[in-house]
Structures are given as structure tokens and as C-alpha cells.
Write a structure and sequence with these properties.
19 helices, binds adenosine-5'-triphosphate, alpha/beta, seven-stranded parallel β-sheet, 513 residues
Amino acid sequence: MADDDWAALVDQQESNQLSSRVEKNLTIGATAATKQVPLPGSASVATGHAPAVTGQAPAVTGQAPVATNHVPGAGDANGEAEQDEKELSAAEQSLLRKKLSNQLVATKADLEILQKDPNSPLYSVKSFEALNLKPELLKGVYEMGFNSPSKIQETALPTLLADPPMNMIAQSQSGTGKTAAFVLTMLSRVDTSKPYTQCICLSPTFELALQTGKVTEQMAKHMTSLKVCYAVRGERVSRGQKIDSHIIIGTPGTLLDWCIKFKVIDMKRVDVFVLDEADVMIATQGHQDQSIRIQKTLRKDCQMLLFSATYEQDVMQFAKAVVPNPVIISLRREEESLSNIKQYYINCKDKEAKFQALSNIYGAITVGQSMIFCHTRRTAAWLCEKMIAEGHAVALLSGELTVEQRAAVIERFRDGKEKVLITTNLSARGIDIEQVTVVVNFDLPVNTQHQADCETYLHRIGRTGRFGKNGIALNFVDGHRSMQILKCIESHFNRAINKLDAEDFDEIEKIGQ
Ligand SMILES: Nc1ncnc2c1ncn2[C@@H]1O[C@H](COP(=O)(O)OP(=O)(O)OP(=O)(O)O)[C@@H](O)[C@H]1O
């Protein structure tokens, strides 16, 4: 299946592939005993160039949603920030400015407090220096404004960088820095004096592959001889050509073509193989087949890394069966959802009422940027039209756009050109846009049996609340069935989702504070 077809399947939810869990029991290599390693805090541990974004984003009209509210503490924050900045290093200042400008934290102290709280997934006792990164890599990390590692980074990296290399299946909450953990591993292991591919990272979508590539390029800014290339739709290779890029980031369909059909990569020389959003790669039949076929071409001692915020039990079982001797970092169920994302539900009798509720909310609170998830492309397109007619600046992202158009839509949204992104499950995972303060589940996520899709719920709401920022998740409930789904999600994560009355402006204003 082409990468793009998958997008269509995901966002229409017409396929049973996303929810069909592991059916085949393919085993590659030995299934090994897992190692037990304690994780600080409370989580349990068992053991080139970016493709040009040329597509035209669909036309966007109308005005930004009305922002009437004052951002709490923003004024005070600026004053404190000035005070703080006097004592900060350049890297600290860059991080602080970034976080303040995105309202991620009110002051530098907020982020520091989070990183010192053993219950926070941002908790860290180590410094990046203590992780023994190459000096040029350390420089890149600091220039990105990363002061100290998050919990997943400080827990995973010592194991990931140890010799002999160990395989890992890692879980950490959304927005807690998994990307940097596996990118730093690739960049630490690569030898740029050798002109061939040594690391491969697979992502489920074009947009995510591009995003990960961008992080890699930023981190490797001072590794001047490093070459990164993208195995994504539209990037052409010819038979017989040998790729000399040290790191390839791509989607499974294209990468499979490159390694099996065109044979442009010497797979036996690859030292690190990463599956980002590993659970969906495993649970989606097409991606699973492609990833397994790619994995079969690798050396037995190639280091395999699987990362995600969620793993259903059967997916984890399958992962353990295909990854030899993995060190496993996992979370307890109650740790999976983040307390910095406040979750609410709103009763609406139908689609029109949901739209009205949205209008009320956008009229009452300041929404930095928001993402609205719909069940189908049709609903997404309908909502987009309605919002544009009301004067909102919205963008629509669904699988019917070309990958180039999709990437262009994301870039515009990332740059703040539109405040609202209406989308489907296509964008539920991985997309990292710090300014997203609100996620709306216009339709609750369900699988093809119309049961609650708790994993997708977690990934969707995880588009806000990035790296400690506060976020709001709003869930529209239209009837008994939909309420049952909500209750199911609530009990799955054992976290209350409170009721919000969309007619009560005082109440709405309060959630924005
Ligand atoms: N050590 C750090 N210090 C400061 N910011 C960081 C650090 N590590 C990562 N970040 C920032 O945190 C944000 C979230 O990171 P990332 O996208 O890697 O999360 P994730 O765990 O992969 O989330 P998801 O499960 O949604 O894919 C990014 O904007 C990244 O730049």
C-alpha cells in the first residue's frame, strides 16, 4: 500500500486496518527475556535536504477567531522574564524566550519546577553533559534551547548510547521529548566519514517524517559533514544509484521501494533502525508488513528502537516478539494521560449544535491555536466551510490533499497563518506545534467497531500540552452512544472528564484561565 493510501484510510476510518490489532504472529529473531530497569519517578521499566514543500495550501479566508480574553499572568510573566534573563546563559535565554512567546510557561522557574518534580514526565536529575554526547551534538542541543533532558531522555539515552548497542521499546507521554531521544541516538552512532546509510527512521506519515528530519538537521547543525535524506513520496531514486546519506528518514512504503525495488541502500550496513509511533506502525497491517520486510533486510545486531506514547497490550506483545532482547520502558495506565491537559465534555444534540458550541467557545476564550478532529473528511470539510462563513481563519487537512499540500498546510499552521486546523485522525499523532492550546474532538475517536479508540484519543489530545504547557481538550458528546464512548475513555485512563455547559459563558471563560 502506498503511504498516501494509508492517509486516506486513516482519516476516513473506513478501513479496519487502524484498529485491527496484530493478527499475524511474525517472529523475527529470538524472543528474549526483558530486562528490568527502574525508571526515575514512577514509570515502570521492564526491560540532505528536506523535500521541497511545493503544494498549494487550500484557500483560506475569513478572519481569525475572536480572541476576547486576556492571557492570565502574561503581563507579569514578561516582567519576571526580564529579571530572569539577566542571569541566564544564551541557551537558557533562547529556551525561555521560546517558551514565553508560546505561553508554554509563565517564567523560567515554571519549567525548572516541572523538571524538578519527580512526578512530572519532564523530571530530570541529569544534565545533557552527563549523557556523554559528542561536543558538536551538545552544542546543537543547547542551541535548540534544551537545558536539561526530560525523563524519557535521561532514562533512555544512557542505555541507547551504551555499547554493545541494545534494542529498546520505549513509551513516554505525548510531548515529552521522545523525538530527541531517538534522534540523539542516531546522531551519536553515525560516523560521517563513512559515505553510506547507517541509520533509518520510519514515521507513519509524510508530515511526521519531515518534522523529525527538521529536528535531526537542527540538532546536527554542528555536524557539518552529516547528510540526511528523506525517503518520502515524491523523492525519486534510480536503480543502481547508491545513497550516501548517513541518515534516512522516511515512510515505510517509499523506504521499502528504495531498499528492495531500487536497492539504493546497503541495508547490511545500517546500525540503527527506528520506528516512531511504533504501535500504529505495528497495528496498521500495511505498515506492519512493510516495516517487517524492511527489518528482515537488516543485520541481526542492528539496534532497533521503537517509540510511542501508547502501546496496546497485544501490540506490545508483538513488538516484544519481533525486537530481540529489548529494554522496555513503559508507563502505567494512569500515567499515560497528562495532568497539564484539562479535559472537558460538552453535550450537543447534533452537528449544528456542536458548531454553535464551538462558536461560543471561540467567542469567549482566547485560543492560541487549536486543532479540531472530525471522524470523516466530509464532516471536516463541512465544518471548515461553516467556520469560514463565520469569519474564522481555518485550514483543512485531510487525506484527499496531496502530500505536498498537506505539508504546506502544516507549515502555514505552524507559522500561525491560520489559528484553527480542522483535520481527521491523519494528524492525531506526533505533530508538534507548541502554540496549540486547545484540541477539540468534534467527533470522539472510535474504531471500526464503533468502540472508543482510547489510544487515538490520547494522541489527539496530546497535540496540546507540549513539554509541560497547559492545554485544554474539549469533547463533543451527541447522544447516549457517544456518552458511553466518553465514559469508556474516562475509565480507561482513570481520569475525570468534566462537563462544560457551552451556553454558560462564565463557565467557559473559567476554563481559559
Ligand atoms: N530536553 C528538552 N528541553 C526543552 N524542550 C524539549 C526537550 N526535549 C524536547 N523538547 C521539546 O518538546 C516538544 C515535544 O517533543 P517531541 O515532539 O519529541 O514529543 P514526543 O514525546 O515525541 O510527542 P508525541 O508522542 O506527541 O510524538 C518539542 O517542541 C521539543 O522541541
